[in-house]
């Protein structure tokens, strides 16, 4: 899977297009898989908010804000 552009919507008045590097995408996928395997981190068909918070912190720790 190759993803070159990811558009993220902000709740603010403007939108910003981000281009993710391959290492960022690889690490994001790794974190998503890890969180999905932790018992209690899934709800219905997706991850719980706590899982996304953990993923966000992991990405920021590795790649900065």
Can you offer a commentary on this structure?
By secondary structure, the protein is of the alpha+beta class. It has a domain at 21-63. It has helices at residues 22-37, 49-63, and strands spanning 6-8, 16-18, 42-43, 46-47. Strand 3 and strand 4 (46-47) form a beta hairpin. Helix 1 (22-37) runs antiparallel to helix 2 (49-63). The longest helix is centred in the middle third of the chain and has 16 residues, at 22-37. The two termini are 25 Å apart. This is Myb/SANT-like domain-containing protein.
Summary keywords:
Myb/SANT-like domain-containing protein; 2 helices; globular; two-stranded antiparallel sheet; two-stranded antiparallel ribbon; 65 residues; alpha+beta
């Amino acid at each position: 899977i190759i993803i070159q552009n990811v558009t993220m919507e902000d709740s603010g008045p403007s939108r910003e297009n981000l281009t993710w590097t391959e290492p960022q995408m690889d690490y994001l996928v790794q974190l998503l898989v890890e969180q999905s395997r932790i018992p209690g981190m899934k709800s219905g068909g997706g991850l719980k908010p706590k899982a996304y918070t953990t993923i966000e912190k992991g990405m920021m720790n590795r790649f900065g804000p």
